[in-house]
Design a protein that fits this description.
By secondary structure, the chain is of the alpha+beta class. It contains 4 helices and 13 strands. The longest helix has 14 residues.
Length: 197
């Protein structure tokens, strides 16, 4: 893997939980796209994480780099947590509750840990670090892996959306690896917060 001496700054083009493009502001891979399918008869939806061409190519060509999703998040009735599967990783499928576990029985629902494919546990927390909306750390060493921030309300628009998932270089494989565990787990955490689960 090429090193650049900079974190990966994945701009979230829309700030929406389920439909957006994520591309590095310096045009480095990975390029990721979220799409969703809504099932009104079941009041459920699936969110797909695809590897994409870079933002400009994918918009112009209207296509993904890979037709197979890296991850599928299936939410249940009335926005309840459902299942997550990683298609390129021997069809690993988990319940979201099992995949992202609360830190303690009485603890906040907005601080949860997951075990990544590298065997290490990582923790997402909401407003656990000053000036960071969501923070991901190594559960045991507390090393900072990355953070996600939405553009502050009232900040004027510039040439970017202002919504950024920052992934520190040593942990880039979690953002664009196979599977894209950092982004998939963040989507679930943001869903939990949005629906007060």
């Amino acid at each position: 893997m090429t090193t650049y001496g900079l974190p990966l700054f994945l701009e979230d083009r829309t700030g929406r939980i389920t439909e957006s493009d994520y591309s590095d502001i310096y045009d480095r891979p990975p390029f990721l796209r979220l799409t969703q399918t809504i099932y009104p008869d079941r009041i459920a939806r699936k969110v797909y994480v695809f590897e994409s061409l870079n933002h400009f190519q994918s918009v112009r060509l209207g296509m993904m780099a890979s037709p197979e999703p890296l991850a599928i998040l299936e939410f249940g009735l009335r926005n309840q947590l459902g299942t997550i599967s990683f298609e390129r990783s021997q069809n690993r499928r988990f319940s979201m509750e099992r995949y992202l576990r609360k830190q303690s029985l009485l603890g906040s629902s907005l601080v949860r840990s997951f075990r990544a494919s590298d065997g290490i546990e990582y923790t997402w927390g909401f407003h656990t670090t000053v000036n960071q909306e969501w923070t991901c750390t190594n559960k045991h060493t507390h090393d900072l892996i990355g953070h996600y921030d939405l553009k502050p309300p009232g900040e004027p628009p510039y040439s970017t959306s202002g919504n950024v998932l920052t992934v520190y270089e040593n942990f880039r494989y979690l953002a664009g690896g196979n599977p894209t565990e950092l982004l998939a787990s963040l989507i679930i955490m943001r869903h939990i917060q949005a629906h007060n689960l």
